[in-house]
Amino acid sequence: MSTLSGMRRRTVVALTVLAASTLVGCAKDAPQDLFRPAGPNARNIDEGLGGQRYIFYMAGVVALLVLAAVGYIVVKYKDRGQDIPEQTHGNPKLEIALTILPAIILATVAVPTVKKVFDLADTTDAACIVNVTGQQWWWEYDYPAQNCGGIEISEPIVTSGEMVLPVGTPVVLRITSRDVIHSFWIPRLNGKRDAVPGRLHTLRMEADTPGIYVGQCTEFCGLSHARMREAAIALTMSDFQTWVDNQTADYSAPEAGSLAATGESTFIAQCSKCHQVNGLTGPDGKPVLAEPDLYVVSGVAPNLTNLATRTAFAGWTFDLLTESCREELWNASPADFGALYLQGVWMNAKAGDTSPPCFDEAALRSWLRNAPAMKPMFADPTNLSSTGGLYRGMPNLNLNENQIDQLIAYLLERK
C-alpha cells in the first residue's frame, strides 16, 4: 500500500513539474516565444504540414498512445503469480505492422518538412542585405551601400547589438563568424542559422509590424555565451529612412570646453584603439581610425557611432534605458514604436533637458569601471601569452571616475 502511495506521489509531482514547465514556456509575454510568429518565415515554420505545431501535435498523439499502451501492459500483466503471457516473438504480421506504422509516421513528417526547408532557404526576393558577423560575444551588423527596399543607403553603416530592418521588406542576412562557431536565432522572425568562420550562410528575415524582436546565440561559444544576445528592430519605411539618415549624418564635435569635449579627448586616448566613431578627428585634424586587430583576438570591436540611439550594449546584454522607459518602448503600439525608438536614451526628453531622462547611467558606468567583472571574457586576463598578447573581449581599462564621467558625456552627445 505504501509503495503504491509513493508511486502516486511521484507521479503527481512529475505531472505538476511538466505542467508548470509547459505553462512557463507558453507565457504570453515571452519575448522569444516561437509560437507567436511575427513574419512570413516564422509563420512558415510554425504552421501547416511539416510546421512545428503539426509535428508537436503528432508527437503528442504518438506519446499518448505509447503511454496508454505501456500503462495498459503494466497494469494488466503485473506479476501476480500468474503464468507467463503468450509471447509474440516470431509473429510476422505484428512485426511488419510495427515496422510500417513508424515508417508512415516518419514519412508524413519528413516529406513536408523537407519542402519547408527548401522554401525557407529561398532568398531570391530579398530587397535588402545585411552582413551579420558573430564574435565573442556580440553581433556586428554591416549594411553595405545599397537600395534597401526603396531606401537609399549611400555609404556603409556598421552597428552592433540591434539590427534595424524596414517592415514588410524581405532582408537577406549573410552570416559568418570571426572566431568560433556561433548561432543566430530570432525565434519570432525565422529559425536558427550557424555562424561559421570562413563560411557564409544566408537567412531570409521579414517583420510584419514595428517592434523589438529578440534572440540569442544558440551555439556554445565560450565564457559569455549566455550573455550574447541580439535584437531585430522593425521600423516603418519612413522611420527606417530617419534611422539611415541619423547613422550616416556628418560627425558633430561637442561644444568646446564642455565635459563632452573633454570626453572626446579621453575617448581618443583610451578607447579609439579598438572602438570606431565615424567622423572623429584628432587634434591634428586627421581621422581617428581604430585598429582592433592589434589589440583583441577577434580583430574587431563594436562601432560606437550613435551609441545613445541604441537600447542596450555589450552584446545586447545590459540596458541603456531605465526600466520604466524600456517597458514603455516594448509595450508601445506599432504606430508609436518608431518615434520612441529613434529617440534612444533621449526618449521623453523635454525642451531644456541637459541629460537624457531614459538613460540607465549605472549600467554603463559599471561597464566602464570594470567590464570583465560584468561579462566574463577571459579565464585568466593577466596571462596573454596564449593569445599572442591580444585581449579576448574588453579589458579593464582602470579608468578613474572623472574619466568615466567624461566618456559618458561624450557618448551621450552622439545622439
What percent strand? Answer: 15-25%
What is the CA-based Rg, rounded? 27 Å
Separation of the first and last Cα atoms: 72 Å
Output mean pLDDT: 88
How many individual helices?
A: 11
Overall outline: elongated
Spatial ordering of strands, largest sheet = 5-2-1-7-10
Helix content: 25-40%
What pattern of helices and strands is seen along the backbone?
A: HHHHEEEEEEEEEEEEHHEEHHHHH
Count of β-strands = 14
Question: Which structural class do the helices and strands define?
Answer: alpha+beta
Low-pLDDT sequence parts: none
Oligomeric assembly: single chain
The largest β sheet comes out as: 5 strands, mixed
Structure description:
The protein starts with a helix and ends with a helix. A hairpin with a 2-residue loop joins strand 3 and strand 4 (151-153). It has a 5-stranded mixed beta sheet with strand order 5-2-1-7-10. With 415 residues, the chain is α+β, with helices and mostly antiparallel strands. Helices cover 36% and strands 15% of the residues. The model has no long low-confidence stretch (mean pLDDT 88). The chain is elongated, with a radius of gyration of 27 Å. The protein contains 11 helices and 14 strands.
